Queue: 2 jobs
Job 1
Amino acid sequence: MEAVLGSVTGVLAAALLYAAFLSWQGDADIVLQVENAQPRNLTVSDGQARFELAVPLFNRGKQDGMVLEFLVRPGFVGQLKGRARIRAGAVWGEDDEGSGYWRAALLRRREALPARVFLEVQLHTGDPARDRLPAALPRIPLAIYFEFVGRKQIEWRLAELVLNPSDFVGVGAGT
Amino acid sequence: MLREYAGPLLGRGSVVAVSETALAILQGRFVRPERVRPGPLARFLARFVSRTGSLSSPFALQLVMQEHGRARVALAFLVGVITRLLLGRSGDLYRIAGPQASLVDDVTGTLPPYDKHIVLGPKDPQRVVEEIRRRTGSEAAVIDANDLGGVSIVAATRGVNRAHLREVFRTNPWGNGDEQTPILILRYSTSSAPPPRLRGLAS
């Protein structure tokens, strides 16, 4: 009986010790800080507005994490539906600006990386609002889904961001 | 491929150095972590590897286990822990677990478009260098080098002066950034070995 009790106690103690170790060690915990999004640039040309935001990806966990994918798509665009071509994406390196390739990013613990989220709105020829872009545009919701891997597992997270064209007044190169 | 890109530089007196990662990619030895299902043992053991090592990823560790066997890798961990604690010696894990343990690159360890893949080490590197020698007449080596001065000669033909090669690659002429140099040809000013100095490097 004593041997059984000793074995059970030993197993339980080992399990508790391992659980405590896992808790102490932790994992990567990467969040997109949409509340800290900053308008970065706006260019308007020939009926097309390109908005660019810097949104920090922050690793608040205890372990390094790697952001493998970062997907952006516009939410429902309301009155713009049928009047515009809309394209959204994100990059973080200058080199990838043209291709829109999301290069896998290593985020050390407590490290932040400014993801550059962009949205392009092209109004169709003849649309009366073309001449007063971006003032004619409504707020546009963006759904962002990103994938990261830490020590433990692969995780996908959803973040929602609302792009407000009026926040871009006085930002960037303009028309 | 070597003939196409380095044809005029090949032949007796030159050494073809091939990046181990480039060779592994040519052999198709890369996989996205989403396609790997780590078992309980990989998940457990990966917890005990320093976070800077590729084996701290249960996905990379699982692939190494598939190459060398779970028992061998588990034994390597056990011996590694014991020798580190009792003798203060490090590296036994990588020595015992098998060559893939030190050659595997976790995600972000390789340049795009393979930055989202785990890249294993090459398969049968010795056979590859012998084949290069047979077909081109050049001596050949497969090398794993980094910007921190780490050089590992994964495989080499008999005519390669390993000490000299290690010295050349200590400064990592390939580069670890966007240089994307898969092959490096060493040509010596005389055909005598060991060579007194390098005449030129070409990629």
Job 2
Amino acid sequence: MRIRSGPLEAAGWWAGLTALWIVFIGTVDVLELAVGAAAALAGAWAARAARRAARE
Amino acid sequence: MNGWLAAAALLLIAGVGPSLWNAARGAPGRRVVAQNYATLLLCLVFLLLAQGYGRPAYVDLALVLSVLGPAGTLVFARLLLTGEEAGEGGEPPGTRRLTPVVAVGTAATVLPLCVVTGPGRATVKLLVIGALLLAGGVATTRAVRHG
């Protein structure tokens, strides 16, 4: 498993979570995208923390 | 009453009912497996009800349940099955049937729903729920088997 730098991995998580959000919501709106991007930020931070914790 | 609602009723009566009954009494191993069955079947029931009543919002309930159900089973398995079942030399009752039930039930529910929904983001959502159910079934079967 390659060791990825922190921001790059977080950006990868953010992109994946935002893509999932766009797939799941009903109507794609600017407000919905903003909410999804913000939620994906929190999710990316949590996912990276969980991955690092599970690795130890 | 259409076919989707009839299938949901069948799953409730023949699946969720006995699962809840088994989850309420007996050894911890059997109750953990029964809880897993109950969450899986409830997720499928929500998918069928979403189609039967024509309310797409129920699919979101199935999505949440497909994530939280296996996670809950993993938590219960970790807390209740540490080493006890391994000493008895057997796996909890119903574990052998778990993977086939997950695979067959998920495919039999998700694939017809995808066909009816047609191409689009809603179908991708259904496929993601199916994938989460399958992955959850694999994870919980492994956790229940190995205490």
